[in-house]
Specification:
Helix content is 47%, strand content 20%. The protein has 15 helices and 16 strands. The protein is of the alpha+beta class.
């Protein structure tokens, strides 16, 4: 990469040097021609004022003495020729005697015969030359002839070559300095572009655009002045159509201020004295909706930082994924508990049969059948199959933990609530699991009550545990609030979001030494969406209990 850059730079330097030489040559040629022209016209003026020249031109005939005198002056002036012509343009003096008496060549005598001095470049009998022509005036003020002093063009080029030779060291010095500069620039550029070739850079840019377009998470890049420099398609959809898409980002494009699109994030990441640090799962509002944001700082440039890249997604989508994972884990736990319990029961029945006590084995089997039938009888009026399956699984889980799990007699729920089965499963599943954990492995009772009336549905989960800890009760439904350590405290926040999305509410209280969580949902026809950011109704607990 460095060699290619150096050779490219050298090629550019050579081209620029050649151009400079050409310009300088043309300029020197013009100056040389001007200087030679001034010498020529000065010599012509001197010759034109000589009495012998004036008399010879006025006579208009050849004169050997005149020709000799003019050639002596030519030698002193170091001119290539001095020609004297009469009014008819016939040569009276010339360096070559055989051309005396012949017409002057070049076609540039019109101006001198009109009484004006000129400097011209024309082709004569001796070749192309720079000429200085002056009219010859007699005593009466009449033009009686012309004097033409000339220097052939090789003389002009001789001056140019001499000047270029004197400038050659400077050209070589400039080329050497340019080469050294090219190597330094190439080395610096090589470090800046991570030793990548141009075609590799182009391929990476194409891959970057494809990756950004494929992401279902919004991604934006923000520079150190809080200006949006890059967004992917998903981010453009969430922020608005006026944002800059990646294909439109060019060196000439003007980055837009982040505050124009997302004031809340701009306020959160505004430049401060300390550099911006990496942050994960920040909850930031965007157009009134909660958004989860991950911030990755870019290269730092002083205390103000060097900008950042932010990836973000709708919190509702994240919560939905978390709920699905929670359901999957819950079903796994249910299956594991059922497997464990049925293995125990099979072992008991097998042992009784091996001991020759079939009557007792039959009694155990009938007892299990009766308990199952009684439990199913309690759920006969709950017509939401997924909720019934969840409660059956929780019963098995409770038996494994040594907890007395009950469904209150008279529980009922019509098939109309099947449309909200996900919310009901999430709420009942989280609340019952929290109740199990509240007992902390100690024997106790957990009771679930499900009811329905014209106004909606009510779910109560009651446990005999110690209650919610006083230090957590006020923020129990806040995301991350938990006394169980890092990574906990998300279940109740998710339940709250789903319940409030249907226009319902959730609260907790202490009743008769038991902790009761109550969920109320309006009838499906009366459901009204409310903001997930509103605060729940929370009753103070009188005794401490680990939260969910």
């Amino acid at each position: 990469m460095q060699g290619r850059l150096v050779w490219l730079h050298l090629l550019v330097l050579c081209a620029m040097t050649a151009l400079l030489v050409l310009v300088q040559t043309w300029q020197l040629y013009g100056e040389a021609r001007e200087r030679i022209g001034e010498r020529a016209i000065t010599a012509s003026r001197i010759v034109s004022r000589l009495p012998s020249v004036v008399q010879g031109a006025q006579a208009g005939v050849q004169n050997a003495a005149l020709n000799l005198q003019v050639n002596e002056i030519r030698a002193q002036a170091e001119a290539d020729f001095i020609v004297v012509g009469n009014r008819a343009g016939i040569r009276l003096a010339h360096p070559r005697p055989d051309r005396l008496g012949q017409p002057m060549e070049g076609g540039d005598n019109i101006e001198p015969f009109a009484g004006r001095e000129i400097i011209s470049v024309a082709r004569g009998s001796l070749g192309v030359s720079v000429r200085g022509k002056v009219p010859i005036w007699n005593a009466a003020g009449q033009v009686v002839g012309v004097v033409s002093t000339g220097y052939l063009m090789p003389a002009a080029w001789h001056l140019v070559v001499g000047a270029l030779i004197s400038l050659a060291p400077w050209f070589v010095l400039a080329l050497g300095l340019g080469t050294a500069g090219a190597m330094l620039v190439a080395r610096r550029l090589r470090a800046d572009i991570l030793n990548l070739e141009p075609e590799q850079i182009a391929a990476l840019v194409g891959q970057q655009r494809a990756v950004l377009a494929a992401l279902r998470e919004g991604v934006i890049a923000v520079d150190g002045q809080s200006r949006v420099t890059l967004v992917n398609d998903r981010a453009a959809e969430m922020l608005g159509p006026q944002t800059v898409r990646p294909q439109a980002v060019t060196p000439q494009s003007t980055p837009a201020p982040l505050a124009d699109f997302w004031p809340e994030l701009a306020l959160l990441t505004r430049p401060v004295q300390q550099p911006l640090s990496r942050q994960q799962n920040l909850e930031v509002m965007l157009k009134g909706q909660p958004i989860l944001v991950n911030i990755e700082p870019l290269g730092q440039s002083g205390a103000g930082g060097g900008g950042f890249v932010a990836g973000f997604r709708d919190r509702a989508e994240a919560v939905a994924l978390a709920d699905e994972l929670t359901h999957a884990r819950g079903f796994v736990d249910v299956l594991r508990a059922q497997t464990h319990e049925y293995q125990n029961r099979l072992h008991v029945l097998s042992g009784l049969l091996q001991l020759g006590r079939p009557e007792e084995a039959l009694r155990v089997l009938n007892a299990e059948i009766e308990q199952g039938a009684q439990f199913r009888q309690l759920l006969r009026d709950v017509q939401v199959p997924r909720l019934v399956a969840l409660l059956a699984g929780k019963r098995e889980r409770a038996q494994e933990l040594g907890i007395d799990f009950q469904v209150a007699e008279g529980s009922n729920l019509s098939a109309l609530w099947e449309r909200h089965a996900d919310t009901l499963v999430t709420a009942v599943g989280n609340l019952t699991e929290n109740a199990f954990e509240a007992l902390a492995g100690q024997p106790g009772t957990v009771t679930v009550l499900i009811g329905e009336d014209p106004e909606g549905a009510q779910v109560e989960v009651e446990d005999s545990g110690p209650g919610v800890a006083a230090g957590v009760a006020a923020r129990l439904f806040t995301r991350g609030a938990s006394s169980k350590g890092e990574g906990r405290g998300y279940g109740l926040a998710g339940v709250l979001g789903r319940v409030q999305a249907l226009g319902g509410q959730i609260k907790h209280t202490r009743r008769g030494g038991h902790t009761v969580f109550q969920v109320s949902l309006p009838a499906p026809g009366n459901t009204a969406l409310v903001s997930a950011a509103s605060e729940p109704t929370v009753s103070e607990s009188s005794a401490p209990r680990p939260p969910a």
